[in-house]
Write a structure and sequence with these properties.
With 287 residues, this protein is α+β, with helices and mostly antiparallel strands. 45% of the residues lie in helices and 14% in strands. Strands 3-2-1-4-5 form a five-stranded antiparallel beta sheet. A hairpin with a 2-residue loop joins strand 1 and strand 2.
Length: 287
């Protein structure tokens, strides 16, 4: 599922993509008695607290997600975790979601941690969002094993501990890049749309603009060498906004340069991903 992020900043989506027909999928659920309908509405109300899609309520995972939510009716951390996890199931995997928890493969959890979660990573003053997500994931899977008879906890715990440092590195870099671009990010009166419009206007002033997912290949003094993961084309970025980049890390964003320039300038950050996320990209497109 591709996210047309550039069009959201005033650009145009790919013409061939605009020609694709829109597909609408409908699900029909029949209620056998009034109490079932009442129960469905209650679950629907709970699901709204973390943006659960309606269709999740008729699938096996919807029952477990709602049951877990009932254990923590007022927890905002649980809401945030369930918002990300349910989106992974309903919007990202959609028709490719496993038919049961028992049918999940190890890659189901690895893809969630390394590839999907960074797309939802938030900036924060304390910069502990990734730690919170991994902690909530482990708690959920431990509960899920007890509820369903699965045995995923040890494997998910291993993934979480291995990914911890990588995700924290991504989170620190994401925060640094956003703060560099938006110094008033954490101010109560910050107007994000005003900043975005200014950035968009600045990007459009360049004669050449490239958007994509770029793997950091090398850092040589004040020059960053990156490679677009779909085409394999290399770019040299001068005066990157922050220091201490880690080779292998993936930068999702936009760069620009003037016609006579050799070096590119990093303009807009849309996401930061660990190196292992590359294995799950599809034709260079993450979402």
């Amino acid at each position: 599922m591709k996210n047309h992020r550039w069009s959201a900043f005033g650009g145009e989506a790919n013409e061939s993509e605009n020609k694709k027909p829109v597909e609408v999928k409908a699900h029909v659920h029949t209620f056998s008695h009034p109490d079932e309908h009442k129960e469905f509405l209650e679950r629907l109300t709970l699901g709204r607290q973390f943006d659960l899609r309606f269709r999740a309520l008729i699938h096996y995972y919807g029952d477990d997600i709602i049951a877990y939510k009932r254990k923590y009716p007022t927890s905002q951390k649980v809401n945030e975790f369930l918002r990300i996890f349910s989106n992974y199931l309903t919007d990202y995997l959609e028709d490719d979601v496993p038919s049961s928890w028992q049918e999940c493969q190890s890659t189901f959890w690895e893809e969630l941690i390394y590839f999907f979660y960074p797309h939802f990573m938030k900036t924060s003053i304390k910069q502990r969002e990734s730690i919170s997500f991994l902690s909530q994931l482990k708690k959920f899977v431990y509960w899920l094993d007890q509820r369903t008879g699965c045995s995923w906890y040890k494997e998910v715990e291993k993934y979480a501990e291995t990914a911890r440092e990588d995700l924290q590195t991504c989170e620190r870099l994401l925060n640094a890049l956003y703060l560099q671009a938006h110094p008033q990010l954490h101010d109560k009166n910050w107007n994000p749309m005003e900043d975005i419009l200014k950035m968009n206007e600045h990007v459009q002033s360049y004669s050449h603009v490239v958007e994509g997912i770029f793997e950091v290949k090398a850092v040589e003094q004040h020059i960053i060498i990156v490679e677009e993961i779909d085409s394999g084309q290399s770019f040299q970025i001068v005066d990157f906004p922050v220091e201490k980049l880690v080779p292998g890390i993936l930068l999702d964003g936009i760069m620009g340069k003037m016609a006579d320039d050799f070096f590119w300038s990093w303009q807009m950050t849309l996401g930061v991903y660990p190196a292992k996320a590359k294995a799950y990209s599809k034709e260079g497109s993450f979402f």
